[in-house]
Design goal:
The complex is a heterodimer of chains A (382) and B (623). Chain A has 382 residues and is mostly helical. Chain A has one domain. Chain A has a two-stranded antiparallel ribbon. In chain A, helix 6 packs antiparallel against helix 7. The longest helix of chain A is centred in the C-terminal third of the chain and has 34 residues. By secondary structure, chain B is an alpha+beta fold. Chain B has 2 domains: 186 residues, Penicillin-binding protein 2a (Domain 2) (Alpha-Beta Complex); 351 residues, DD-peptidase/beta-lactamase superfamily (Beta-lactamase), CATH 3.40.710.10. Chain B contains 24 helices and 22 strands. In chain B, helix 16 crosses helix 19. Chain B is elongated, with a radius of gyration of 33 Å. Classes of the chains: A mainly alpha (382), B alpha+beta (623).
Chain lengths: 382, 623
């Protein structure tokens, strides 16, 4: 990383906030990240209020998860990164154990088994834990060794990535398994994975895709890809969701139909309107302006993540911050892409906007790691 | 370039791609998706118009619309469907076909929509269901307007009926106009004036959700009810004619001389038109269709009978016009007639004849066949044809209901074209007494009689008086004219048919307060079309002569012309037309002619006109 000048100029900016920041610094809080996240969550709640049909229990649930997430974030922000690095492997093993347990004891819905009930804990998806555990573990493994990673280390990392990916994929939850895999791959990427491997993987993916199509993907997964290519082919079946979401987005125009006034969303034409397809509600009611505001807020979060990554003091922190930030972006991108018909429909929620329990907590917990890194960086630069 | 910089660039590129995607959907293709979303949201519901009413000349309803109640079940409100169905079957009679149709429809119905189980509930069934309402959650009774004929049988042939639109009609109608309408006029006035009666469909734009449930109404345009038809028909006179025919097969047509308006048009036996509205059962329909009495068939316009002697006044006028006969012309009547060079004897109905020398007056009054054999023979069939054609015979009269038959007015051309044979002189003799090939409908007879009453002006008959403005010339003077004296001779003879001592209808002259001009007729039935495989007794009955009578009255200022046909002389064989016609004339004329009538109605006005201005020849058109 050769961005010393950039870091210094940003420090200058930070000093202008000194009086307020110093107080927050003592609480291990990164104010810009906190405000951006609060902004996204607030905006998300506003959209969810409309998308859920002003359903108060839903809102209460969402608020409590956000609150729990923020608490988790602030707690994690207090933890020393070295400690986190030490315990990451254990977290990984626990997560693997839970994923195996899901296969045998899990409960599910719509033909997929994703949840697990543990006594004394709310029902949750073990795959959520893996979203954090995997990048931490791969980063912990690679940061202790020479960078860029050698062949053997790459292979170990790949094994670390593939095990949870397959376990989650078997639930089946293609979207999450790919996103988990991606979070691990991002660690490899930031660790300086040789372009030789990257191109090899791309070629391998290209070659194996017909095999994946024929032997790995379930029929409904293939259907989703076919639907993306031609939603009109099955208007009332698989194509219905995507046609209705595009209609909702397109009919929103520049300014939208007004908050709570979206016809597609309020009259139930839009399926999954408060979960995966919530961006269509936003686009219909608040228009392109609303979409740009959300993208702007996401950019703020991602930008802050990039800066924290730049300032990170050690390789482990840098890898973790880079992976979490980029994975967050991928969430947003995949969701916005699939709802607008750019990408196949995979079950990826829109971060902080879609109704969702554990995923919000996981996301915010991840940003807690960013805050921990940020705190550490500031303490050391001081 | 560092890994982070590359990642940031890729992130920005991807976000740009997303922004472009949303921009293209929301700005570039905005209009297309707005249309799509509106199409989702807004449903157009058709509201069927109220069908126009049909009233007689006094405003009495002959066809109206009544709420017909339908029993329906709402799926989403019923927990135990089979239980509710079983309970309903216990309470009211539900046919298996209804149950089957209900189950078929239920599968495709939306959960909040009532699926019809039974149509046209009776008052009793509604009461039973109301009492048990608390146990029947999700069972609904809805009302929609259905055609109703208060006197189902009385006007079935004239008014006709409506019925469910069938596939053939579906292909022909303007789908938009019939949106929400399930019935269409099938026969009679209902068919003829379908366009007016239907009205204009209304629309309701409603906002619906994805499941089709109506959220609210956005806008609506009310349906425009169909036009009410007012008929010339006088339900009182019509009913008298109907009752006069009673159990006998036959038809009576009464026509207003001045306007051509149909005052009464009865065909017996009849049928209940209401049954067709709700869907007649197969059993009932085949019963009607297969009955030897042919109740579904409108004898007044579809029944074709030999006119018999009823047309003798017309033939007399023909003879006078062409100079074949005159006031002093007499025929020697020996009870039979023989053509030159032919040994065959053509007999008179009266075996011994009507006396040695018979003139025109006596020939009409006593209905002497020999005179008309001679007249017809001297006239020739083609001149007989040409003259009679002016009276509306052998062609449709143009009455405003469909399915009218033409009848047959034979001529040499007709026989060559239709039979491919030459005309024989003997056939002219048959034609001269209204037999042989000659066939007329009761309506044609009434129209021809109206022409006599108008002294040589044909008139197109009409059922509907208003509000249709019919500006076409409905009255045309005869091209082949007769002098006033000739008219007087013929009409005087017709008066003596009723009022003369030897008149064939003298029996009805008792207690008459006005003068009738009439003519009796008897038509021989030779293997009539509708009589098929019946036992000997029935066959004999159906081979008896038809009895006919035509008349107009009052003679000085004719108001009404009537024609009656009694098939086979009725059930007893002794029923004749004249007394029936007298009843109809009385029913129509007595209220007009008696001074104590209240002076409010239009009829009274007509009675006042009676004293002035007779309907003169050449008096052009009648409004």
């Amino acid at each position: 990383m050769s961005s010393g000048d950039f870091v210094r100029s940003m420090q200058g900016t930070a000093t202008s906030f000194q009086p307020a920041a110093s107080h927050l610094q003592r609480m291990h809080i990164d104010p810009i990240l906190l405000l951006s996240l609060a902004g996204v969550c607030g905006f998300g709640l506003m959209v969810l209020w409309s998308a859920s049909g002003q359903h108060q229990p839903t809102m209460l649930r969402q608020c409590s998860f956000i609150l729990a997430g923020f608490i988790a974030m602030l707690v994690i922000a207090q933890i020393d990164m070295r400690l986190i690095r030490r315990w990451s492997v254990l977290l990984y093993l626990v997560a693997i154990g839970l994923l195996v347990a899901v296969i045998f004891y899990g409960s599910g819905a719509k033909g997929a088994t994703r949840w697990i009930d543990l006594p004394g804990l709310p029902r949750f998806q073990p795959s959520e834990i893996m979203k954090i555990a995997l990048p931490l573990t791969v980063a912990a493994y690679l940061s202790g060794r020479s960078m860029p990673p050698r062949f053997f280390q790459v292979m170990v990392s790949v094994v670390l990535i593939i095990i949870p990916t397959l376990l989650i994929g078997a639930q089946p939850d293609l979207g999450t398994s790919l996103l988990v895999a991606v979070s691990g791959v991002f660690v490899l990427y930031f660790a300086g994975l040789s372009w030789y491997y990257v191109s090899a993987v791309v070629v391998a993916a290209g070659v194996s895709s017909p095999l994946i199509w024929n032997y790995v993907l379930h029929d409904y997964q293939k259907q989703r890809i076919l639907t993306l290519l031609d939603p009109e082919a099955d208007k009332l079946g698989a194509g219905w969701n995507i046609i209705q979401s595009k209609t909702a987005i397109g009919s929103g125009g520049w300014q939208g139909k007004g908050w709570l006034n979206g016809t597609q969303s309020q009259l139930d034409f839009l399926p999954e309107s408060h979960t995966d397809f919530i961006i269509a509600v936003l686009a219909e009611e608040l228009g392109l302006f609303g979409v740009l505001v959300l993208i702007g807020l996401y950019l703020l979060v991602i930008g802050r993540g990039v800066i924290i990554g730049l300032r990170a003091q050690d390789a482990f922190s840098r890898l973790v911050v880079g992976s979490i930030t980029l994975t967050f972006f991928v969430y947003a991108f995949v969701n916005m892409g699939m709802v607008s018909g750019l990408l196949p429909v995979v079950g990826v929620p829109l971060p902080f906007v879609s109704q969702g329990g554990t995923s919000i907590v996981t996301l915010l917990a991840g940003f807690g790691l960013l805050m921990a890194v940020s705190t550490e960086a500031k303490r050391i630069t001081r | 370039m560092s890994r982070l910089t590359l990642a940031v660039l890729i992130v920005l590129a991807c976000l740009l791609l997303i922004v472009w995607r949303y921009f293209s959907l929301q700005v570039i293709e905005h209009n297309r998706y707005t249309t799509e979303s509106e199409r989702n949201r807004v449903h157009v519901q058709a509201m069927a118009p109220k069908r126009g009413l049909i009233k007689d000349r006094h405003g009495i309803l002959l066809a109206e619309n009544r709420p017909s109640r339908t029993l329906g079940l709402v799926k989403e409100r019923i927990r135990d469907l089979e239980g509710v169905l079983a309970a309903l079957v216990e309470l009211i009679e539900i046919e298996d076909t209804d149950l089957q149709r209900f189950r078929d429809q239920l599968r495709f119905a939306r959960p909040f929509e009532a699926v019809p189980l039974k149509f046209n509930l009776s008052e009793e069934e509604i009461a039973i269901l109301a009492v048990n309402q608390h146990t029947l959650v999700g069972v609904e009774i809805t009302a929609e307007l259905a055609r109703y004929y208060p006197e189902g049988e009385l006007y079935a042939h004239v008014v006709g009926y409506t019925g469910r639109i069938n596939e053939r009609e579906q292909a022909q109608i303007d789908k938009e106009r019939y949106d929400g309408t399930h019935h269409i006029g099938k026969v009679g006035l209902e068919k003829q004036y379908e366009d007016l009666l239907l009205g204009e469909v209304g629309y309701r734009n409603v906002e619906v959700n994805a499941f089709g449930r109506i959220i609210r109404e956005i806008e609506s345009s009310d349906p425009q009810p169909g036009t009410d038809l007012e008929l010339y028909l006088d339900s009182r006179v019509h009913k008298v004619a109907h009752d006069a025919l009673g159990v006998n097969r036959g038809a009576i047509v009464a026509i207003e001389v001045e306007t051509g308006g149909i005052v009464a048009m009865v065909s017996t036996p009849s049928f209940d038109a209401n049954q067709f509205v709700t869907g007649v059962s197969t059993k009932q329909y085949s019963e009607w269709r297969d009955s030897p009495d042919l109740p579904l068939y409108n004898r007044a316009i579809q029944g074709q009978y030999p006119p018999g002697s009823t047309l003798k006044p017309v033939f007399a006028l023909a003879g006078l016009h062409y100079g074949v006969v005159d006031e002093n012309f007499v025929v020697r009547d020996r009870g039979w007639y023989r053509l030159p060079n032919d040994s065959r004897q053509y007999r008179d109905w009266k075996r011994q004849g009507h006396g040695t020398w018979v003139g025109l007056h006596q020939a009409i009054v006593e209905s002497c066949d020999i005179y008309f054999y001679e007249l017809a023979f001297n006239l020739g069939i083609d001149r007989l044809h040409d003259f009679s054609a002016q009276f509306g015979l052998g062609k449709r009269t143009g009455l405003d209901i469909p399915s009218e038959r033409r009848g047959i007015l034979p001529s040499t051309t007709w026989k060559r074209n239709v039979r491919g044979q030459a005309w024989f002189p003997g056939e002219t003799l048959s034609a001269g007494i209204g037999q042989g090939y000659m066939l007329v409908t009761p309506l044609q007879l009434a129209v021809a009689t109206a022409n006599l009453a108008r002294r040589g002006q044909s008139i197109t008959p009409r059922l509907v008086k208003g509000p249709v403005s019919d500006t076409s010339a409905r009255s045309v003077p005869n091209r082949l004219e007769n002098t006033e004296h000739e008219w007087q001779m013929v009409i005087d003879a017709m008066v003596d048919v009723v009022h003369g001592e030897r008149g064939t209808a003298r029996s009805i002259s008792r207690n008459l307060s006005y003068k009738i001009a009439g003519k009796t007729g008897t038509a021989q039935v030779v293997g009539i079309a509708q009589g098929e495989e019946y036992d000997a007794e029935a066959l004999a009955e159906r081979n008896r002569d038809h009895k006919l009578f035509v008349a107009f009255a009052p003679v000085d200022k004719p108001l009404i012309a009537v024609a009656a046909v009694i098939e086979n002389g009725g059930k007893t064989g002794k029923v004749v037309g004249a007394p029936l016609v007298r009843e109809v004339l009385d029913a129509y004329l007595l209220p007009l002619l008696t001074p104590e009538s209240d002076g409010k109605t239009a009829n009274t006005q007509q009675a006042a006109d009676l004293k002035s201005e007779p309907i003169g020849a050449g008096n052009g058109e009648v409004g």
